[in-house]
Specification:
The protein has one domain: Pnp Oxidase, Chain A (Roll), CATH 2.30.110. Helices cover 31% and strands 33% of the residues. The chain contains 4 helices and 8 strands, in the order αβββββαββααβ.
Length: 142
């Protein structure tokens, strides 16, 4: 008998606990994980999402893949409404501001960088094509 699937919120809670228990360092399936805390655009509640990431100089870069789904992830929609975030990775915690990267050369460079941490990104972009462009987000320190 197989176990029932774990709801995404419960899975995120478990990963967040493991991340914090490991001093802000965690990999899942070979991908480095960071925590993004943001405010819900409807509820006003704080949510924390564990996400694969890359670092460009001193800035964290994330991609709103949602597995290539035709819809943006909820966390990304929340960032569009309020770009103020808390970033946790590699034992650091800081306040940040989310910025969607749209300049083509910068985006291409960051996609290449994020693909090193999230090898499925090109496949997700292909799957999402025709529905949406997967957002690449830079988390700037404030």
């Amino acid at each position: 008998m197989t176990n029932p699937p774990v709801h995404i919120h419960e899975r995120n809670r478990q990963i967040t606990e493991e991340f914090r228990a490991n001093g802000g360092r965690l990999t899942q399936e070979g991908m480095p994980i960071m925590l993004l805390t943001h405010k819900g655009r409807k509820s006003g509640r704080e949510y924390t999402n564990p996400l694969a990431f890359a670092v460009d100089q001193d800035e964290v870069i994330i991609a709103g893949t949602m597995g290539g789904s035709p819809k943006h992830p909820e966390w990304f929609l929340n960032l569009e409404a309020d770009p103020a975030v808390t970033v946790e990775y590699d034992g650091q915690t800081y306040q940040g501001r989310a910025e969607v990267v749209t300049e083509p050369a910068d985006r291409a460079h960051l996609v290449e960088l994020v693909t090193q941490s999230l090898p499925a990104l090109p496949r997700y972009e292909e799957k999402a094509a025709g529905h949406r462009v997967i957002p690449i987000v830079r988390l700037r320190r404030v």
